[in-house]
Design a protein that fits this description.
heterodimer; A: 81 residues; mainly beta; Ubiquitin-like (UB roll); five-stranded mixed β-sheet; two-stranded antiparallel ribbon; 1 helix; 11% helix; globular; B: 435 residues; alpha/beta; seven-stranded mixed β-sheet; five-stranded parallel β-sheet; 34% helix; disordered C terminus
């Protein structure tokens, strides 16, 4: 199946179709997806939409749970926001 | 804004084993059934789809065949699935408010079946907030959908049958599992294994043989994770000695805890964090049923039987429901043995130091939280449990560590887009006749 290309912090990344967004970001940037309120690095904990530690901005929409979101072509993702 | 309104005989929340079984049992009698789930696919966490198309932890073996059978039956049942939909409020009797594709969605139901499942229990220890420290189930679930684990060193620690299943699944995906550390003592688990039926025992043996060469330690637990920007090693102890394992990922969870936000929101009675149900899986709230993990952690087989009973009972097929009571008793006995075998040791309640983050959302430390005497007080004065996860992670830890009753919930049960809330407020302000 044709891969999907998404933009992570402005840089294009190609991932297999069916890849969950959290996984695509981890592949590109490592497991840290955001900074906590006191500035500590954080990554996903629960992997199932509960902990909110994987939230990123998708197409301008903030606080999107990247562990429940599938990568789609031309998706624009921003981390650490 | 466009609010979609749906009317149904039976609404089921959760498309895991319990929800699917309930939906099948009810929809096959011809009633209108709507199933709501947050995930892109049905099957819940336990039957999560592999990116490459397979389901479950193994291929062609028991759990996968079972998942396929139920998903086929569900697809033929006539029930309608609303995937990627999150329930955020229960604004009135017989109404659920959900959010789907950033649009509000109102569902009017006659009977409601809550099959909201469970999540992993996380207990704080120094370093548990480092990126790369994840729940074993969570990591496996993400790894199946592309999270990089190939050739990564993964330490698996904590408690429960999920550790073995996760270690096995991660190894199959190419991870180098460096250790499986179960906190329960070997004696308790040997006793438990002795009581298992052939299917569960076969599964355990398959996992163990698939993990040949991976060290398994019992009566062993993590005390500290270390690293700067991400985890790079974990300190473990067996109570006698302490040692360090180098790792790229630490999969650590202390069993499962019921997801009861929605049952609480609807007004169901709970006891010891479990939803109270009668023989027919009916809750204390009229016309609301509950099945699977929220009634007690018993696994997928237990959830399937409870789900069917709830579905039959909610659709007025009481004879079919009663015919399953015996099988449910068998799984309830399994559920009790599971809780006994994997009972958490007291040492796990004191792993965190005063500086350890207790509430990950608001970065509230253990030292701050333990100044208070109740969940309510801690929330009011320290913001513990007031962040985006709304206490889902630290609330369960507070219950385990301090014994606090964590049973208050307010809508929205998850951060919802403003539009959904405005729609809710507008609808609440309308005359009752519109309901």
């Amino acid at each position: 199946m044709r891969p999907v290309t998404i933009l992570i912090n402005g840089r294009p990344h190609q991932v297999p179709r069916g890849t969950v967004l959290a996984a695509a970001i981890a592949e590109a940037l490592g497991p840290a997806l955001r900074r906590s309120v006191s500035g500590q690095p954080r990554g996903p904990l629960c992997g199932m939409g509960v902990c909110m530690d994987c939230c990123v901005t998708v197409n301008g929409q903030p606080h999107v749970r990247s562990c429940l979101t599938l990568c789609e072509d031309a998706m624009e993702v921003r981390t650490n926001e | 804004m466009s609010e979609q309104v749906l009317k149904t005989d039976i609404a089921v929340v959760g498309a895991g084993p319990a929800g699917l079984a309930a939906a099948c049992a009810a929809a096959e009698s011809g009633l209108r059934v709507i199933v709501i789930d947050e995930n892109p696919w049905p099957g819940g966490q336990v039957w999560k789809r592999d990116k490459r198309g397979a389901r479950g932890a193994g291929r062609g073996a028991g759990p996968v065949a079972q998942a396929r059978r139920w998903l086929r039956r569900f697809n033929a049942s006539g029930a309608m699935l609303l995937e990627r939909a999150t329930v955020i409020a229960a604004p009135a009797a017989g109404v659920l408010l959900a959010e789907r594709a950033q649009q509000p969605l109102r569902i009017h139901w006659q009977r409601l079946i809550l099959a909201t499942g469970a999540r992993e229990l996380f207990l704080p220890f120094p370093g548990w907030t480092l990126p790369g420290v994840m729940g074993p189930g969570g990591l496996l679930s993400l790894a199946k959908q592309g999270w990089p684990v190939k050739d990564r060193r993964v330490a698996v620690a904590g408690s429960g049958p999920l550790l073995l299943a996760a270690a096995y699944g991660l190894k199959r995906l190419g991870a180098r599992v460096v250790l499986v550390a179960e906190q329960a003592p070997f004696s308790a688990l040997a006793h438990f294994a002795f009581t298992l039926g052939p299917s569960k025992l076969g599964q355990a043996i398959r996992f163990r043989s698939g993990l040949l060469g991976v060290p398994h330690r019992y009566g062993t637990w993590p005390i500290r994770a270390e690293g700067e920007e991400q985890v790079c090693r974990v300190a473990l102890t067996d109570g006698q000695r302490t040692w360090i394992e180098e790792c790229d990922l630490l999969a650590c969870g202390f069993g499962l805890t019921p997801s009861v936000e929605l049952p609480l929101l609807v007004g169901c009675e709970l006891k010891n964090r479990c939803v109270q149900v009668d023989d027919c899986q009916a809750t204390s709230h009229p016309d609301v049923y509950c099945a699977g993990e929220p009634t007690g952690i018993g696994g997928a087989d237990c959830a399937l039987v409870e789900g069917q009973i709830a579905g039959y009972a909610a659709s007025g097929q009481s004879a079919k429901a009663e015919a399953l009571f015996g099988r449910r008793s068998t799984w309830h006995r399994f559920r009790e043995r599971l809780a006994t075998a994997f009972a958490l040791r007291p040492e796990l309640k004191s792993l965190a130091t005063p500086e350890t983050i207790f509430c990950r959302c608001e970065d509230v430390t253990l030292g701050t939280v333990r100044r208070f005497s109740s969940w309510r007080e801690a929330k009011l004065h320290s913001r513990c449990g007031m962040g985006p996860c709304q206490g889902r992670i630290c609330g369960a830890a507070a219950h385990t560590i301090f014994g606090w009753a964590v049973d208050s919930v307010r809508p929205p049960v998850l951060p919802a887009r403003v539009a959904s809330l405005i729609a809710e407020a507008a609808a609440s302000a309308e005359p009752q006749a519109t309901r």
